[in-house]
Amino acid sequence: MILLHHLRIGRSLFTVWQLEEFGIDYEIKVYHRDPKTFLAPAELKAVHPLGKSPVIEDSDIMLSESGAITSYLLEKFDVENKFSPPRSQSQEWAKFTQWLHYPEGSVFCPLLVTMLLLRSKEPHVTLTPYSERETKLHLGHIADQLGDREYILGEAFSAADFGMTYVVSLAKRLGLLDSYPTLNSYLEQNQARPAFKRAVEKAVE
Ligand SMILES: N[C@@H](CCC(=O)N[C@@H](CS)C(=O)NCC(=O)O)C(=O)O
Question: All domains of the chain, ordered by start, with CATH?
Fold first, then answer.
């Protein structure tokens, strides 16, 4: 049985969503952020040296990093390739891998800088232009990739949509989606999935 170490308010909600979509048996251990610092509690450091979430345990393996957790869950549980192209389709698989890693690898950093700037309320000489330029670049890139299609790989939902939905939802929270109707629709459609709703019931309550 998978044990998910889940920190309230953050990306591990999207790991709960995956577990729900995949139909995997799992348990959740919930942690709460420090109300003043918004950091994870020390208990999470007792689980993993970084003290961050998500972390999963499965028999004798412990894994951090949301993208790596997705790859692990796919490898072990998505035996019918419902959520990713098979490796034998090398080009489709490579493109899938690119979109799987893109949210955490490229999109999250400018969103985090934007979030920190909002907290400080003062513009910064280098960080403000960086955050404006890079968020526009990446949100535009995601909107272009979606085009008229429902999901990041096209017509079918895939595991690349988990991390993408996370960064788009964060952009929404930061008030960055006003000029991106495509991203708003993408978010609404994914958050309306029954598995997402179940994840919210289990992880947010
Ligand atoms: N790159 C990691 C990031 C993990 C991470 O920073 N998680 C945040 C929650 S969204 C966290 O645990 N923050 C609490 C802290 O830094 O104390 C991943 O993709 O899993």
Answer: 2-83+195-204 (3.40.30.10), 90-193 (1.20.1050.10)
